[in-house]
Amino acid sequence: MKDRDDSLASSGKKEVIVPQLVDHLFRHKAGQMISSLTRYLGMENLELVEDIVQEALLKALQHWPYHGIPDNPGGWLWHTAKNRALDTLRREARFQKRLQGEIRLIEMEQVHSGQGRGTTGPDKDAHPFEDDQLSMMFIGCHPSLSREVQIALVLNTVSGFSAAEIARAFLVSEATLAQRLVRAKARLRTTNARFELPETGSLTERLDAVLDVLYLLFNEGYQAHTGERLLREELCLEAIHLCRLLVNHLPEKSPRAHALLALLLFQASRLKARTDANGNLVILAEQDRSLWDRDMIRDGLLHLGLSADGNTLTEFHMQAAVAAKHAVSESFERTDWAGILSDYESLLEIATSPIVKLNHAVALAMAHGSQAGLEALMRLKDDASLKKYHLLFATFGEMYERSGKIQEAIESYREALVLTENEAEQRFLQKKLQKLLILHPSDRTS
Amino acid sequence: MSQFMLFIRNGEEPNELSPEQIQQAIQRFSAWARKLREQGKLVAAEKLKDDEGLLLRTRNGQIVVDGPFAETKETIGGYFIVEAGNLDEAVALTKECPALSNGGIVELREIEG
């Protein structure tokens, strides 16, 4: 749409400069406004706040088509929502004489006075929102809620995704998700969750939960499901956005947060390269590295550096270290496999999950040949948690193929194919199988 | 050149729209209005207040006032006045009005000059 507008503007018979909306402005603004208004109206009024914000957004839809987009769209929205909230508070103060409400009302008018009148160029009212979003993120990750619900709640209240959009991204029904959100909000009300950052003592603990939520949120978007690719990419970018918010506004330094941000940036830098035009998976070895986002990689390296501050070494640190080695390597062949192998060895010391072991085996194969990799894989074969894990068998296939054991490779790929429901991965495995079957037609009958 | 008036009747209340969808709807509308403006075809555009509509008429020699009307989806949300060479051209540019894709109705009337 932008392109068309630009071409019209340049050929313009009558030049009119109309402000354009930044991508996702409404979504981001919705999250900011919900967080900030909740600070003033209290967690118990979260649903009222959501209604007020939705009303402000709809008001824009009713007005802007006729009057044009205002110079400061974000300010216009905030001004509209704030006034509506003030009306509500005034009514509350008058009818219920609630001192609390009046105090909040005065506070709110002071803090945000003169902001967002909609006439003064760029959106200058960005700052006060961010601390509020941070508080909202911590509330969303309240220990009384399950991880799954925490992710949905953060997306809904801090990031401005609707229940329908979250449902689509998580492949659950909209009704189910909406219900989960309602229940979660009710629980927060009954547990009297306070709208503030936790005390220093419990901050670290809660921060760990927030970081885990962001990590899972990113992975949700990064897994290569078919369809809704744009929505999934948005989840990845949103996880980065929120992680950046954390890193920039936390009252104390968090090396783990920097490590996570670095990891997410390295992974996201490959978003454009990891699927082809038909939505097929492109594996790391075959990716066009010129499509990798250099700015993200640079930024990732910066945060990897910042993550080294202090003496904590977390899973995120080691994963980021691995991701960094891939990100800076000019080709798959020239990857620093020895370095990656040693990172995985360190990772195994702090996290012995089967998935880490699997990745360790792959690194071993890359550094010391597929025989070493196969031996490590064999040791994983009986691990109960990997029995149904398609990537174990896909990796077996890959290793067998590399060591020329075609029959075993075919069997492993077939096993992997049965275990994955992901269409992109199925297509990928089928392609692998076909290639082997063409080379070795005698195996076709087996 | 003739002038035409486009009365926009909004569709169903779009309460279920997500922030992202609301932004997209605004962008579609803005692109349409901007195109008209840049082609010099847009004469005026105004939004009408939502629930202030009254009907005045004489009954038994008395002027009576009816309303306001609650059915927002049937009321006119706003209007555009556009210039077009003839009715066909006016119909063509009205067909591109995004209100139509949101379940709205657009009434097109030529202004007698």
Structural class of chain B: alpha+beta
Separation, N- and C-terminal Cα atoms of chain A: 54 Å
Q: Order of SSEs of chain A, N→C?
A: HHHHHHHHHHHHHHHHHHHH
* Rg on CA atoms of chain A, Å: 25 Å
Percentage of β-strand residues of chain A: under 5%
Number of helices of chain B: 2
DSSP strand count of chain B: 6
Mean pLDDT of chain A: 84
Low-confidence stretches of chain B: none
Estimate the helix proportion of chain A, in percent. Answer: 55-70%
The SSE string of chain B, one letter per element, is EHEEEEHE
Describe what this molecule looks like in 3D:
The complex is a heterodimer of chains A (446) and B (113). By secondary structure, chain A is mainly alpha-helical. Chain A has 20 helices and no strands. Chain A has helices at residues 2-10, 25-41, 46-67, 73-96, 99-111, 127-140, 147-157, 163-170, 174-190, 200-222, 229-249, 255-268, 294-307, 315-327, 337-350, 354-368, 370-380, 390-402, 406-419, 423-439. Chain A is elongated. In chain B, strand 3 (55-59) and strand 4 form a beta hairpin. The termini of chain B are close together. The relative contact order of chain B is 0.34. The mean pLDDT of chain B is 86. Chains A and B meet through helix 1, helix 2 and helix 3 of A and helix 1, strand 2 and strand 5 of B.
Present the secondary structure layout.
The complex is a heterodimer of chains A (446) and B (113).
Chain A: H1 2-10, H2 25-41, H3 46-67, H4 73-96, H5 99-111, H6 127-140, H7 147-157, H8 163-170, H9 174-190, H10 200-222, H11 229-249, H12 255-268, H13 294-307, H14 315-327, H15 337-350, H16 354-368, H17 370-380, H18 390-402, H19 406-419, H20 423-439
Helix pairs in contact in A: 2-3, 2-4, 2-6, 3-4, 4-5, 6-11, 7-9, 7-10, 8-9, 10-11, 10-12, 11-12, 12-13, 12-14, 13-14, 14-15, 15-16, 16-17, 17-18, 18-19, 19-20
Chain B: E1 2-9, H1 19-38, E2 42-47, E3 55-59, E4 62-66, E5 76-84, H2 87-95, E6 105-111
Antiparallel strand pairs in B: 1-5, 1-6, 2-5, 3-4
